[in-house]
Amino acid sequence: MNDTDESKKVAVITGASRGLGRALAEHFLAKSYVVAGCSRGEATISHPDYHHAAVDIRNETAVQGWARSLRREHGGVDVLIANAGLARSALYLSVTPGDVFDDFLRVNFAGVFYTLREISKLMLGRPDARIITISSTMVPLHQEGTACYSATKAAIEEMTRVLAKELAPQGITCNVIAPAMMDTDASQELAKDKDWKDRMLRLQTIPRVIAMDEVCHVADFFVSPLSGAVTGQVVYLGLAA
Amino acid sequence: MMDRQDAIALIQESLDSLNRSGTIKKPISVDDDTILMGSGANSGLDSLGFVTFVMDLEDRLRTATGADYAIVLTDIKGFDINNPTLTAGILAEHVVGLAARG
Predict the structure, then answer these.
(1) Which of A121, A167, A170 lies at the smallest CB-CB distance from B55?
(2) What is the torsional sign of CA A168, A171, A174, A177?
(3) Per-residue model confidence as pLDDT tens for chain B (102 residues)
(4) Is A118 within the bounds of a domain?
(5) CATH number, domain containing residue A135
(6) What's the ipTM?
(7) Which residues of A touch B (CB under 8 A)?
(8) CA gyration radius, chain A
């Protein structure tokens, strides 16, 4: 059963209940997309074209089940933004507990892998389908205290580049948006330490917080039909990398 | 109750449909020894074509049985991830098992 108005494109966004994911979901809804979002919790967006699922992307079976329900409800997917991720307070590698490392691997790496694998199947045969993953300027900065976080984000960049090659014959592009500091729940938590926030901003080429709209603007660029030859790219916002 | 011949027929229907849509260039007549994936594959499916085939087969299985099934390669008895070759016969056996488990 396909419940989607077929004149509307379908965007799937993970981590859609708050922060950047929510901003992206609202942005694509405003562009008349049908948006299927997920997060571990309940929906925080109320809109007739917004469909929420409580999915923990660390759980392979849960992601597979969600993908099957998306196929039934929407038929296919035009845009995937694999946004869900974990940002945590920074510790030097030598004192980082194993469970923190495991959390980063499971959410930022395995979770994104399951999402890309399952949702990309729903994009085969969709003209101008687009995949966007989210990284961070912490990758080119090699900043102390971000070994686990940055390693998983670097892995996402590489996974996206490889996927770009694999899906190019299908006309599907895969790109990465890597913003510097943003106003999200995670960064606000970290920024309670004023020194940390000031230190991070000084590392940026554009030393200010990146706005959600600026990320949405880059997403629009990647999603544009005129960007069909743009694939395997990483756009860093706020940093000359 | 689905039997092996029913499963082979579903595989045939799926490959016929992929041929009509242009995913497979030439029509193929399926038997137990048809190699769908891996060394010596004669199904005409490339790797993304194989993904499309599996999804199409899952859809047909749902239509035929009314239940949702996920075909996971590593669950298939006789499929070796290090030497990945999948014949229609092995897949049909797996599909029959899936349908029987309900």
Answers:
(1) A121
(2) positive
(3) 899 999 999 999 999 999 999 888 889 999 999 999 987 888 788 888 999 999 999 999 999 998 888 898 888 988 888 888 899 999 999 999 999 987
(4) yes
(5) 3.40.50.720
(6) 0.77
(7) 64, 68, 71, 121, 124-125, 166-167, 169-170
(8) 17
